[in-house]
Amino acid sequence: MDNPQIHNLKEEIRETVTQAITIPNHKCAVFRAGREDKFSPQGKAQLLESDQYESYIFDCTLCKACEQDSKLCTAFQKARTVLTLQKKDPQANKELLQNLKTTGNIYGIRN
Ligand code: SF4
After folding, report:
1. 36: region left, alpha or beta (phi > 0 left; psi from -120 to 50 alpha)
2. Atom 4 of ligand 1 has which residue's CA nearest to it?
């Protein structure tokens, strides 16, 4: 069983994906560059429903171009939070968070 925070985030993600009527793939720069469904807002939304999104959700730039129509960017942010809480986020994200904790910036530069 997930911890309550993860459980609640997953419920909110499911609700957002269920309510996403219009999924504007054409607005997504990552999809326009990658040209594969897994890079599109719609493809990511389908992966969120299947709970198999570890390797794709960090491809999203969180630019919010898809947000006006569907609130999916918010769901993608929450999915990243879930992965981080589960310690399944990519190594680069772990390093970024560690840098923030130790130096106050994502680059790890000490003043
Ligand atoms: S928030 Fe992510 S999925 Fe949405 S348009 Fe931007 S890059 Fe694409």
Report:
1. beta
2. 66
> Which residue is closest in CA terms to ligand 1's atom 5?
28
The residue length of the chain stands at 111
Q: Which amino acid is at 48?
A: L
Pair of tokens at residue 1: 């069983």
Cβ contact 42:25 at 8 Å: yes
Question: Is the Cβ atom of 24 under 6 angstroms away from ligand 1?
Answer: no
Q: What is the pLDDT of residue 1?
A: 66
User: Taking the model in full, what pTM does it have?
Assistant: 0.86
**Token couple for 5:** 């925070």
Instruction: Give domain limits for the chain.
Output: 4-103
> Which residue's CA is the closest to the ligand 1 atom numbered 6?
63
Ligand 1 geometric centre to CA of 73 (Å): 6
Contact 31, 66 (CB under 8 A): no
Q: What is the pLDDT of residues 37-91, one digit of tens each?
A: 989 999 999 888 887 788 889 999 999 998 877 889 999 999 999 999 999 999 9
